[in-house]
Amino acid sequence: MSDKLKKTLIGEARILLISIGAGLVFTLLFALITMFYAADAQADVAASILRFHVLAHSDSYADQELKLLVRDAVLDEYHDVLTNVDNRVDSITHLRDELANIERIAADVVADAGYNHDVSAALSNSFFPTRSYGELRLPPGMYDALTIRIGSAVGENWWCVVFPPLCFVDEAQTELSAASREQFASVLSESSYELVSMNNSDNGVRVRFAVVEWWQNRSSDSDSEIFIAQN
What is the pTM of this model? Predict the structure, then answer.
């Protein structure tokens, strides 16, 4: 093999290695940017809302109906307070103070229905899948929530947003009222509200939501849960 050919091959090999290295760096940077954007976007939404989570004892019809009875009793009891609270912190503070009473209300419903399931109520930080409320769609990820467990708590669960108070919006509605949309928009940053609004026809926004959804589902542990410290 001639020296000229050797030099040519070495030069081409260097170019190939540099190209591969540049590609790897670009891929790594893209992955990091995607990771940080997805995490920050979901965290911004999560930091602005408080969710409500009721876990049924099982998937039997009776236990699923019991879950809804517990949900209705708690929401009926706290309707006035939760629909008039001004901010997320006040919602958390009030519900933390009321945990014992919330647990009692839920336990009474369970007992009145003829069951002896244990019932617990807590404020926790848990993984939630993608969920739509009217034209609002929340990305998956970790969210603070009022969580009620009935019995084994392994049945299909029910969730909503307690601040802003979307729990009190009829689930059959396909469109939120102007007041509900305005309240939700008021607690989110402009970019976060743009992200969760399904009325947005911007393909770029849809792509960003898909990125957040993909990353959160890929990176989050759906069994993870952290209880919010009691003060």
Answer: 0.76
With CA atoms as reference, report the closest residue to 91 among 139, 69, 123, 67.
123
124 DSSP β-pair partners: 145, 227
Element holding 68 (H helix, E strand): helix 61-84
Token pair listed for 186: 């008021």
From residue 160, give the alpha-carbon distance in Å to each of 4, 36, 99, 129: 72, 27, 18, 12
Q: Domain limits of the chain?
A: 42-227
pLDDT tens track for 174-213: 566 777 778 888 888 888 888 888 766 666 677 777 877 8
